[in-house]
Write a structure and sequence with these properties.
Rossmann fold; Hypothetical Protein Yjia, Chain: A,domain 2; 15 strands; 28% helix; globular
């Protein structure tokens, strides 16, 4: 009998954005009682009044039913330990895990950890990145801190806090939409969105959305979609991923998508990656919507969009005028 996958959600956002408030709402929500929360230090989050029972080293059972774990070492070891103790019956079962990053943290190392083979073997899967954005200080933070830009650029969902304290939050909302045109952006309300930690996020949303606004402040971040209706041969797709990581790995903040392969075009493959780290592609039982094209979202920092698009076209076999073919791109030492 197969063990259900535990969806892992990353909660990020700059210092003072409101992650603590959101995390408290999560652990108080009865619908999310079967949640494990991994935080950096207990003192960083106002949960002390909720701690009721020690369940083991570094793990407490909250009055709401959630598990709370302090991250004092390596995230990989922490998650593996939680999974082992859950399987052995040493901890109450949990249906999902929320990993809160520090306000100054760049999200890439956390995402890389969640894509590591050991985490997959422990039964976890990266479901979504949720970022809290401070409407009151957001523009200044984006201008001054690269970490803030990266946190919001890789998010699947952006929750805007403190919008009621700003006379006109629309310029900040427009900048967020420009920085991350494929994120779901909404205000933080008193009641949590019912689908905030939905496991449905495991199938990445990769619908094409236009970039509505451009800001020179965030020009180093690009978000775009590689799409084709052609079913790719599996070996050619894997070769494309290898070339992409080799040439542009350092600039890949995030890669995610649904891929149509020729060996089974009715069952798409989910692909996720961060820099040089790639999650093992997994098959879905069917396409999640009527669109059965390959759609891969890339979020890059300083990457060359045109060359990446040419590389993808070459490996997918698409004919493009004045664009090199796969042989020219991969075997010509002067191509790049």
């Amino acid at each position: 009998m197969s063990v259900p996958v535990i969806p892992a959600f990353v909660l990020t956002g700059f210092l003072g954005a409101g992650k603590t408030t959101l995390l408290n709402r999560i652990v108080r929500d009865p619908a999310l009682a079967d949640t494990a929360v991994v935080i950096n230090e207990y003192g960083d989050v106002a949960l002390d009044h909720l701690l009721v029972e020690k369940s083991g080293d570094g793990v407490v059972l909250l009055s709401s039913g959630c598990l709370c774990c302090s991250l004092r070492g390596d995230l990989l070891d922490t998650l593996a330990d939680l999974a082992t103790r859950r399987a052995a019956g040493g901890l109450p079962p949990f249906a999902r895990v929320v990993i809160e990053t520090t306000g100054l943290a760049h999200p890439t190392p956390v995402l890389q950890t969640l894509l590591a083979p050991q985490i997959v073997a422990a039964g976890y899967a990266l479901a979504a990145v949720v970022a809290v954005a401070d409407a009151q200080r957001g523009e200044a933070l984006l201008d001054a801190h690269e970490e803030s830009v990266a946190q919001l650029a890789v998010a699947d969902r952006i929750l805007v806090s403190k919008a009621d304290l700003v006379a006109d939050p629309s310029p900040f909302a427009a900048r967020l939409a420009a920085l991350n045109p494929r994120a779901r952006i909404e205000r933080v309300e008193d009641v949590l969105p019912a689908d905030l930690l939905s496991a449905g996020s495991l199938a990445p949303a990769v619908a094409r959305k236009p970039r509505p606004f451009f800001s020179a402040h965030d020009a180093s971040i690009a978000s775009f979609v590689l799409a084709t209706s052609t079913a790719m041969e599996p070996h050619r797709f894997l070769a494309f991923l290898d070339e992409l990581r080799e040439r542009y790995g350092e600039s890949l903040l995030r890669l995610k998508g649904l891929v149509k392969l020729a060996d089974d075009p009715l069952r798409p493959v989910v692909v996720q990656g961060v820099q040089h780290v790639l999650h093992a592609p997994e098959r879905l039982p069917a396409w999640p919507d009527a669109d059965d094209r390959t759609r891969i979202v890339l979020i890059t920092k300083g990457g060359d969009r045109q060359r990446i698009e040419d590389l993808f076209a070459a490996f997918s076999g698409e004919v493009r005028l004045d664009a090199p073919d796969r042989e020219a791109l991969t075997n010509n030492p002067l191509a790049f």
